[in-house]
Design brief:
The complex is a heterodimer of chains A (189) and B (176). Chain A is an all-alpha fold and 189 residues long. Chain A has one domain: RNA polymerase sigma factor, region 2, helix turn helix motif (Rna Polymerase Sigma Factor, Chain: A, Orthogonal Bundle). Chain A is built from eight helices and no strands. Chain A has helices at residues 4-12, 16-38, 41-57, 68-86, 117-136, 139-149, 155-162, 166-184. The N and C termini of chain A lie far apart (44 Å). In chain B, 18% of the residues are buried. At the A-B interface, α2, α3, α5, α6 and α8 of A face α1, α3 and α4 of B.
Chain lengths: 189, 176
């Protein structure tokens, strides 16, 4: 399997199948984060698509100072935030700075298929509640929560991305979690 | 809940995220050994984190993302789709078929110089004829560049339009 660097070299030589390999490698992680930030699949897909297109067209400007995923991740989160802002979402955060997110850890798991219908229904309802709760948060709390809980970024990385102090990140997470606990109530007991 | 509990709960998220160090870490750690209430709060934080991560990972796992590549490949084969535009510099380079950015920058500097000369009183360049054709147009935040080809002479001409004033239009000829 080719490394990102090898794939990028091939893309620069005009091999678009190499770019397809990169898209397929990272699309799930990026989709999860975009969905968390935007709250619906259509917008999440649009922002992921936009990010990949921007990355492809800007590839000459990628100097390899950070990993390709880091670079791509930043583009995606900015695309998602920008899309949220264009759609008039409340107090959206500013664009994000450099960050070094978790490296690829393989495919995301799919829920167990041996759940009975009742369990599946409960899971579905809980999922809808989680999404609704996340979207009720102010944008800065939501972004901090998504970057921490879904992507697993450190406070320092989140602070760099959101252009704020680590103390502010901690505060946003604290109040964001508090509100999520209030909304989700017994499900987090 | 004691004052100590209140203080610990403010730090509990940081403890859960492995972000506490030194005295703060020890304070929370020691308190959790003797306070069932705060220990329970930590468990709730852990449960919520698991639920959130599992939910969004499951969503991404179930989504048919094969469409992402088909959409991306369609967009990158069609300039102007999705994210829209190439960078301004690259577009100017393409207009003039310039091989390197330095050429575009040099060209832009030349345009500015000629524009300054053109703006001197009594030395205006001629107006474009109606049958000139537009080769390309590039919009930036403050101004637009338009490239024309003069029908009669085949001379390429750049128009730089100041969007801010909406009045000033300046033009210059470049080598054909």
């Amino acid at each position: 399997m080719l490394s990102d660097e090898q794939l990028i070299e091939r893309i620069r030589q005009g091999d678009t199948t190499a770019f397809q390999a990169l898209v397929e490698k990272y699309q799930k992680k990026l989709y999860a984060v975009a969905y968390g930030l935007l709250g619906n699949r259509e917008d999440a897909l649009d922002s992921v698509q936009e990010a990949f297109v921007k990355a492809y067209r800007s590839l000459d400007r990628f100097k390899g100072e950070s990993s390709f995923y880091t670079w791509l991740y930043r583009i995606t989160v900015n695309a998602a935030i920008d899309m949220g802002r264009k759609q008039g979402r409340r107090d959206e955060v500013e664009f994000l700075e450099e960050v070094e997110p978790e490296e690829e850890k393989g495919e995301y798991p799919v829920a167990s298929s041996i759940e009975n219908p009742s369990q599946q229904l409960m899971r579905k309802e809980l999922g809808a509640m989680i999404e609704d709760a996340i979207q009720q948060l102010p944008a800065e709390q939501r972004t901090a929560i998504v970057l921490r809980e879904i992507e697993g970024l450190s406070y320092k990385e989140i602070a760099n991305l959101m252009r704020c102090s680590e103390g502010t990140v901690m505060s946003r997470l604290h109040y964001g979690r508090k509100k999520l606990q209030e909304i989700l109530g017994p499900h987090v007991q | 809940m004691t004052i100590r509990c209140e203080k610990v709960r403010e730090l509990l998220g940081g403890f859960h995220d492995n972000e506490l160090q030194g005295r703060e870490f020890r304070t929370v750690s020691e308190h959790l050994k003797v306070c069932a209430g705060c220990a329970g709060e930590l468990k709730r934080l852990e449960t919520m984190s698991r639920l959130l991560k599992a939910h969004y990972e499951e969503l991404a796992g179930k989504e048919d993302l094969s469409q992402v590549w088909s959409r991306v490949s369609a967009a990158i084969e069609t300039p102007g789709v999705s994210d829209g535009r190439e960078p301004l510099l690259e577009r100017i380079m393409k207009i003039f078929a310039l091989p390197k950015p330095a050429w575009a920058i040099a060209g832009a500097v030349a345009v500015v110089v000629v524009l300054m000369l053109a703006s001197l009183p009594g030395d205006h360049m001629s107006t474009l004829a109606a049958n000139d054709c537009i080769i390309d147009k590039v919009d930036s935040e403050n101004c637009s560049f338009m490239l024309y080809e003069a029908g009669a002479t085949k001379m390429k001409i750049i128009w730089v339009i100041d969007q801010g004033s909406g009045e000033t239009e300046q033009q210059t000829g470049v080598t054909s």
